Amino acid sequence: MERKSTYGATGITLILRVFRTLVSRTISAFGSLLLTYVISASLGLSALGVFSSAAAVMLGVVILSNFGSSTLIIKTAGINLSQGDFGAARATYLNAAKLSLLGTLAAAILGVLYVAYFDGPIIVMWLLICAPGVALLLLNAAMFRANLDASIAPFCEFGFLSLAASAVLLGAQYLGTDVTLTRLGLILFVITYVVLGVSFVVLARRISGFWSQPISVAQAVLDHPRKTKNFFVMEFAQYFSQWGLILVIGLFVSSQEVGTFSAILKLAFLVNFILGVMSNTVSAQISSLYADNNFERVAKVRGQARLIMLGIALPVALILFVFNQPILAQFQITAANASLILTGLLVVQVLNVATGISPVVLKMVGHERYLRNVVMFTFALQLGLALLLTPMLGIAGAAIAFAAGLLTKNAMAIQFEMRHLSTTKRSNTDV
């Protein structure tokens, strides 16, 4: 199937594209939350804490190995595909895949040795063995987004893998088989590589010239990290907010409290996931429009995106606020301050939805260097506050650190966007 020329589409077309992506993204988001529920209900919050920490390690390895390649693919391969240059898009993808496999395979070997010689949790080994597959799936997801197939991309993410694993676990429970973290690791291993194989088949069909068109200009593999370093900083900061923070608080609180914080964070992300949907839907479009000097369209897409996101996020936040206590009870969460923490994070995520498109715009129109500096500052702020407040306030301190870093990043991005992002003059990119 050839690529559709819809980069300039706005209005109803944008809403329809968002809706298609929303459906698949909802499946992905629900999968992560469902797995959290299955683990907490079947094995308890302590087991959820162990799994969350292991998943944070695995995803950290993936982020380090991909080194910002996903964003580079969305931005540059999106432009290449819009111009019919499939060979250049494939060159970027292959360089990213080579570097990613190098890092994740090394981590998988270390994971096996860690369990064999240091008697670590077996779930760590299984998840690190999954890391090469998860890394390639994320690169495939980036190619789908670059090709304006954002509705397919969520099926290549860890959330969908979690959904499939949850379904298998629930089926096993129904048949009388006990749920364990070791079995969960094995299930995730099988699902990861089955989905990876399917994603390659779909990618070949959606971009018919991707594997056949010759590469016109060779790209050095070792030159790839130079292009992605700014993107890596931004992706790592995002990873830290969602997963890395779990590793930090695990230094100070019990596995049960880690599990509690992980579940609350995932519930709050139900408000935020529409921002991910919109980012996946419009990122390549914004990059291409800006490359074509179509600044008015960029501004129009940005404004429509904010309105659509708030229209979806506010009802979700209201439902979670009204029914927060019975919802928390379903996850076996009984901590006295859990309801207050969830309420605070819901407010933070609504504000994030209202302002979070600004960092996406800066990233796609050539201001990666400024955004990199912003996220480096806010990452340091988040990490410092987590180390300072978690020992004193427990998971409430971690929630404060999370909120402070997220809102500071968006505020600084909005300020830069209002003062410096011209709609009449294109800035030089600094990839």
Entry summary:
This protein is mainly alpha-helical.
Describe the overall structure.
- It is a multi-pass membrane protein.
- The chain crosses the membrane at residues 21-39, 45-67, 99-117, 123-143, 155-175, 181-204, 236-255, 267-286, 307-328, 340-362, 374-407.
- Keywords: Cell membrane, Membrane, Transmembrane, Transmembrane helix.
- InterPro entries: MATE_fam, Poly_Biosynth_Transport.
- This protein is mainly alpha-helical and 431 residues long.
- It folds into two domains: 23-219, no CATH class; 222-431, no CATH class.
- It has helices at 12-43, 45-66, 69-82, 86-118, 122-146, 158-174, 181-206, 224-249, 255-291, 295-322, 324-330, 338-355, 357-364, 368-393, 395-420.
- α3 (69-82) crosses α8 (224-249), α3 runs parallel beside α9 and α8 (224-249) packs antiparallel against α9.
- The protein is globular, with a radius of gyration of 21 Å.
- It starts with 11 loop residues before the first helix and ends in an 11-residue tail after the last helix.
- Residues 1-9 and 423-431 have low confidence and may be disordered.
